[in-house]
Design a protein that fits this description.
By secondary structure, this protein is mainly alpha-helical. The N and C termini lie far apart (52 Å). The protein folds into two domains: 51 residues, no CATH class; 114 residues, Homeodomain-like (Arc Repressor Mutant, subunit A, Orthogonal Bundle), CATH 1.10.10. Helix 3 packs parallel to helix 6. Helices cover 61% and strands 5% of the residues. It is built from nine helices and two strands; from the N terminus they run αββαααααααα. A hairpin with a 2-residue loop joins strand 1 and strand 2. Strands 1-2 form a two-stranded antiparallel ribbon. The relative contact order is 0.07.
Length: 188
């Protein structure tokens, strides 16, 4: 579960089965009742209908918790990211970071660092498109040491500089009054 919509879908599935939950959070649920195998299968089916999966494998669950912690930190907080991801993950999940990193790489075929960078770049794109912050403010918000560091990482991932990405975003939109005018002039 990586969004409020996912959490709502899980809560609805549990309610429809008459199950009472203590916690429905990103990547985990805690219910009051002990459920039977049949109820577990019913819940699994209900979640699949919503595009969600009930996980049994402890490693898969841990991988999902790593992903959710990163997504939550990068996409779902308005606070400035000022913590080291490795420390944050170790504290949040109560595992040694080396273990988490090795497990993630083994299962996902990429590093936690690359996963974080991919999500940070997506968040940067979002912030550029919103246009509320300039590149300096975005670099500060996303905990980059400098605008140059953000720009280099952004270009490495997207092939574009942040300013070029912003220009492309601006070119995509055409004012309503200009749509259909081949000469680009507004009607008088």
């Amino acid at each position: 579960m990586v969004s409020t919509r996912c959490k709502m879908a899980v809560k609805e599935a549990l309610k429809s089965m008459g199950l009472h939950f203590i916690l429905v959070d990103l990547g985990e649920i805690d219910i009051m009742e002990n459920i039977s195998f049949a109820q577990r299968e019913q819940l699994k089916t209900a979640l699949l209908i919503s595009g969600l999966e009930l996980m049994d494998d402890k490693k898969a669950i841990l991988i999902e918790k790593i992903k959710n912690a990163i997504v939550e930190m990068v996409h779902h907080t308005d606070e400035v990211i000022k913590v080291n991801f490795s420390e944050h993950l170790s504290k949040k999940l109560d595992y040694d970071y080396t273990y988490l990193a090795n497990l993630f790489s083994e299962v996902q075929g990429t590093t936690i660092e690359q996963f974080v960078i991919s999500h940070k770049v997506e968040r940067i794109k979002e912030l550029i498109i919103y246009g509320e912050l300039n590149i300096t403010e975005i670099a500060w918000k996303m905990n980059y040491s400098s605008v140059a560091h953000l720009s280099n990482q952004f270009k490495k991932v997207t092939g574009l500089s942040p300013s070029h990405f912003k220009q492309l975003k601006e070119k995509r939109r055409t004012p309503i009054e200009e749509i259909g005018n081949s000469n680009g002039l507004t009607p008088t």
